[in-house]
Specification:
Blueprint lengths: L4 H31 L1 H5 L5 H32 L2 H19 L5 H4 L2 H18 L1 H10 L7 H5 L1 H23 L2 H6 L4 H17 L6 H9 L6 H8 L1 H10 L1 H20 L5 H28 L2 H23 L4 H19 L2 H4 L9 H18 L1 H12 L2 H20 L8
């Protein structure tokens, strides 16, 4: 099935725009959790306890993500990629918008953090079906020799969404006083998500079904229970894929959510200053994704992932010396390095992870592996890192990053090259 230039642009735009919206929604929560959710929803005499509670609510979404992956994967493998992607975007966007209207603990008591966690669960549930579907949309439409470069477009949504989220928080910090930001300004990024979701829906509703799914349904009926077939016939690929994505999540959330909270509390940097440094550093993530996508097509995604995991282990060793250097320039250098390396363990996933599974269970398999890895590498990362830093400084945080990267290295090395998408 040959695609026109217009349809190619539409496909790549939909895979990027959708995940940009999703990561914007997801990351404005991470930023708000690092900056204001502690005192607003989890009041305590200890600032560290407030931050830990806010990070715990952040982790709720990672628990929801595999559940969302299971549900959206089921329908994505049975009824198609397009409609499932639209539903996941609506779930994520609706939950994010509702957070803007939440009462705080001061006005609603314990009901406020409960509602916050419920909506955080909704965010994670929606995102559980997002990445896998966007990656399949790209790679299942890619011509031979372009799988990784097509597959990197969902990953590019991460820096785009991050820049939009952090950029908006930075502008609000410059325009509003600390009191106004704490009282109502933090709600504006959640309100703005409605406009971004509308753009994402407009693009996705114009799509057609992917050739791989259409060919699969033309030759055989879809699986009655995709997760059962996945766990029966492809459990090794699922386990290996889950462990293989840990490094990218650990790198991202340690160098964004944790670093922001630690940098603005323990290290004493101003919020706007640190957000500005992160905005520059995130450009290196985009550069890493672009380079890794090109290298993955030139060689193969597995080799690039192995190289990225080795670099991630080394990055953990320099975390403490650079972050505790007392120099904002060196702090920025670490963040840029970590996010650049993340590009090499994140960019190839769009081609590598779906390629571990046949089309019959590809949506379920890629989504489950990606989101289970998200719990291990991302959902717990800010909590573990904060606890380690409170007890032993940043050196143990670097060791934690090294161990996470080593786990991914072993998993990727143990699996053969992805056989199903070539």
């Amino acid at each position: 099935m040959e695609t026109t230039h217009a349809s190619t642009r539409r496909i790549l735009g939909a895979s990027l725009v959708g995940t940009a919206v999703e990561f914007y929604d997801f990351y404005i929560y991470a930023t708000a959790a690092s900056l204001v959710f502690g005192p607003l929803f989890f009041p305590s005499d200890s600032p560290s306890a407030q931050l830990l509670a806010a990070y715990a609510s952040f982790a709720v979404a990672f628990i929801a993500r595999p559940i969302g992956a299971l549900v959206f994967g089921h329908y994505g493998d049975r009824i198609g990629r397009k409609s499932t992607l639209v539903a996941s975007l609506l779930m994520m966007g609706g939950s994010t918008l509702a957070i803007a209207f939440l009462p705080t603990y001061a006005s609603a008591g314990w009901v406020a953090p409960v509602l916050l966690c419920l909506l955080r669960f909704g965010q994670g549930f929606g995102l559980g079906g997002e990445w896998g579907g966007a990656a399949l949309l790209a790679v299942e439409n890619a011509p031979p020799g372009w799988r990784a470069r097509f597959g990197m477009f969902p990953q590019l949504g991460a820096p785009v969404g991050f820049i939009a989220a952090n950029g908006l928080f930075l502008l609000l910090g410059l325009w509003l006083s600390d009191a106004d930001f704490r009282d109502w300004g933090w709600r504006l990024p959640f309100l703005a998500s409605a406009l971004l979701v509308a753009v994402g829906l407009w693009v996705r509703l114009k799509l057609t079904e992917t050739p791989a799914f259409a060919a699969m349904t033309a030759h055989s009926p879809p699986p009655a229970v995709p997760i059962a077939e996945l766990l029966r016939d492809h459990w090794r690929a699922t386990l290996g894929g889950t462990l293989g994505v840990i490094a990218c999540f650990a790198l991202f959330y340690l160098s964004t959510a944790f670093a922001l909270g630690f940098g603005t509390t323990k290290l004493g940097y101003a919020r706007e200053t640190f957000l500005g440094v992160q905005l520059v550093a995130i450009l290196f993530l985009a550069l890493g994704i672009l380079l890794s996508g090109w290298l993955s097509d030139r060689f193969d995604p597995r080799r690039v992932l192995i190289g990225g995991c080795l670099a991630a282990v080394a990055t953990g060793l320099v975390l403490a010396p650079l972050m505790e250097s007392g120099s904002l320039l060196l702090v920025g250098a670490f963040l840029a390095l970590a996010l650049f390396v993340m590009g090499f363990v994140y960019g190839p996933l769009g081609a590598w992870l779906p390629g571990l599974f046949p089309a019959r269970v590809r949506y379920t398999g890629a989504s489950m592996a990606f989101n289970m890895g998200g719990i291990l590498g991302g959902g717990l990362a800010p909590i573990i890192a904060q606890a380690l830093a409170d007890r032993g400084g940043l050196a143990p945080v670097g060791w934690y990053l090294g161990v996470a990267a080593a786990a991914s290295l072993v998993a990727v090395f143990s699996l053969q090259a992805a056989p199903h998408i070539d």
